Amino acid sequence: MSQKIDFDYINQLAKRSLGGDLKSFEKLLNILEKYENFPQVKFGLYSLIYQLSMNVFIDVSKECEKCGGKCCKSGYPIPVYEFDYKELAKRMNREELEKLRRVDNIYLLPRPCPFQQGWVCTIHRFKPYACLSFPFATEDEQREIINNYDGKGIPDFKVPEYCIAGKKVKETLNAIISDLEKCLGRKPTPKELYQAIMKKKK
User: Fold this and answer.
1) What is the signed CA dihedral for 59, 60, 63, 68, rounded to 10 degrees?
2) DSSP assignment of 127-160, as one string?
3) What are phi and psi of 117, to 5 degrees?
4) Is-contact 180 196, C-beta < 8 A?
5) Phi, psi of 102 (to 5 degrees)
6) Residue 81 DSSP class
7) Residue 64 confidence (pLDDT)
8) Rounded CA gap, 55 and 17, in Å?
9) Pairing between strand 116-117 and 101-103?
């Protein structure tokens, strides 16, 4: 890549996008589509569209309630990036912030999550980016997929068996992708997929 990408800025745009700020997502799409020839970038764009669908476009609240929030109850600690921590620090008291673990230069959110009550996330409106991106950007789930992705087609994202919300998102997007393939005669680009989702939303 001839031009250096500011990954911290990219992550901040991504988090704002997953909070419903579509202008941030469109800005992000415009930045990254220049690098679509790189498989990891293309993977990231498709991944973001799936994340966006799960957080903004598709109502998965019933599925999350039925699941009971298993993703918050087990697994490795969740990374809390600097921009996450700054936001949490504005909204939490000292006692709440102390529930985060600091390891070297990074904060971690332990699992089971101390901010989960029943299936409900009590910090949902400002939870860390890594939480928002689950399961479509989680390294545990997607490591093998991204390592084998050659930039052709759309990644077949892996969804944990228990995550019925993720399965709903994947099934919904698969249907949209199938319709686009019939019209285009090929797999849609990330931008084409995003535009099709936006049309459905309207």
Assistant:
1) -130
2) --HHHHTTTTT-HHHHHHHHHH--SSS-------
3) -125, 110
4) yes
5) -105, 125
6) -
7) 96
8) 9
9) unpaired
**Spatial separation of the C-alpha atoms in residues 48 and 133, rounded to whole Å:** 8
Taking alpha carbons only, the member of 192, 146, 200 closest to residue 49 is 192
Report the C-alpha gap between 17 and 11 in whole angstroms: 10
CA distances from 85 to 31, 79, 88, 102, 114 (A): 25, 10, 5, 11, 16
Long-range contacts of 142-145, Cβ-Cβ distance < 8 Å, separation of 24 or more: 142/47, 145/43
| The model's pTM | 0.92
**Whole-number pLDDT of residue 4:** 67
Place of tokens 């319709």: 179
- In the 8-state DSSP scheme, what is residue 11? H
Could you tell me which residues are beta bridge partners of residue 107?
A: 80, 102
CA 81 to chain centre: 14
Distances (CA, A) of 44 to 101, 152, 172, 188: 28, 13, 19, 15
Distance separating alpha carbons of residues 46 and 139, to the nearest angstrom: 15
Residue 7: band (very low, low, confident or very high) from pLDDT cuts 50, 70, 90: confident
- Judge contact between 168 and 192, C-beta under 8 A: no
Amino acid at 20: G
pLDDT in tens, 13-31: 999 999 999 999 999 999 9
